[in-house]
Amino acid sequence: MLGTHSLGVFLLTSLVLNLTPGVDMMFTLTQTLRHGIAAGLAAAFGIVAGCVVHTMVAGFGLAALLAASATAFTVVKGCGAAYLAWLAIGMLREAAASAGRAAARDAPDAEPDEAVPPAPSAAQPTLARIFGQGLLTNVLNPKIAIFFLALLPQFIDADAANKLLAFLFLGGVFVVQGALFLVAFVLLVAPLRRWRASAAWRRGLHATGAAIFLWLAARLALAERP
Fold it and tell me: How far is the first Cα of the chain from the last one, in angstroms, to the nearest whole number?
């Protein structure tokens, strides 16, 4: 189809990759648990938009620069690692602020009718902001660009009349499958929000998410160019 072959194998390979936990899945999970289905879907579609960018970049050969240039790869992965670390710091600050509000409520000298200030508006980001974060999380990962450049050509016929069209077709298939998977993932984990978690559990969620993102940032920063 459109100069491609072994489409079934490609779909199976893409499914396995989507099922493998990574930055994209963790970002979607944390946004869903922290802010709900709409936020989870915004994160998912931001990540999908990032995959579209990678498809276009790799399709027109620009991703080859990341594979050929150590400097370019280092710069992009450094930006990606820094961004993940910044997201982790935001989670840690939210956990600390939640702990402070809990301490104020439990203080012995607190007035019974004293209202604890609500969380700042930054703790409830807009859907556009979450979409943008998902987009940057995906785009600033050079290994995804190189993955597209390395995987997709393996399923393009050597005598394809239009290799660019075949490449973009496979990229589109990957993007659609990834979008369907992330939407299903959001709907699957969203019911966990119905559980009336304690403030300590929510603080633990923020702290755990921050630790995971710091680990992912370190792993990306230490990644070697394929």
Answer: 30
